[in-house]
Amino acid sequence: xxxxxxxxxxxxxxxxxxxxxxxxxxxxxxxxxxxxxxxxxxxxxxxxxxxxxxxxxxxxxxxxxxxxxxxxxxxxxxxxxxxxxxxxxxxxxxxxxxxxxxxxxxxxxxxxxxxxxxxxxxxxxxxxxxxxxxxxxxxxxxxxxxxxxxxxxxxxxxxxxxxxxxxxxxxxxxxxxxxxxxxxxxxxxxxxxxxxxxxxxxxxxxxxxxxxxxxxxxxxxxxxxxxx
Length: 228
Known about the structure:
By secondary structure, this protein is of the alpha/beta class. It has two domains: 3-132, NAD(P)-binding Rossmann-like Domain (Rossmann fold, 3-Layer(aba) Sandwich), CATH 3.40.50.720; 161-226, no CATH class. 34% of the residues lie in helices and 21% in strands. It has a six-stranded parallel β-sheet, with helices on both faces. The chain has a two-stranded antiparallel ribbon with strand order 7-8. It has a two-stranded antiparallel sheet with strand order 9-10. Strand 9 (204-208) and strand 10 (212-216) form a beta hairpin. 31% of the residues are buried.
């Protein structure tokens, strides 16, 4: 039996990349969702050309009341929420998934959003579903790298991690999320103490193998809590 996956924001920057991979997997039934019917239809057509098979679409504002009951009718196994920015966003999508008995994960890079979703833990357990937040570069990939290599060291005194994104970012939500921290205080653990630093300050040069030199700066991400 096929595994049904619904991608919220399926025609956006990251959602589109995820859909392009999922449509090629024979055991996946892909459903894409968004609020714009034109963009949705265009993405469905592009995916059909790419994967050679039809995928379903659901045009909806998933944040609205009542979406949970509609979601339940789609018989979805996993919902992937890519529709950021997550700064200031509610947990409506995760709540709809719990109501509908659907497993949930998101690509949130907002520190407060990822930390706060723990308030839904008891409800998710009672419903028998998984609710996973922050399934993106940070903290998921960064934490996986640390877990893989930490046994090589007797102890770890400090961790410095950063992301050097491609200059080509077509998604407006991506840009909004990246710039949301500009000038705002960020709690950062240094030398065993929590200090306030400020978003997009602390500019520094880092040399990255195979990429040359890149500029990095302070950004508030969930990994700052995971590694604290």
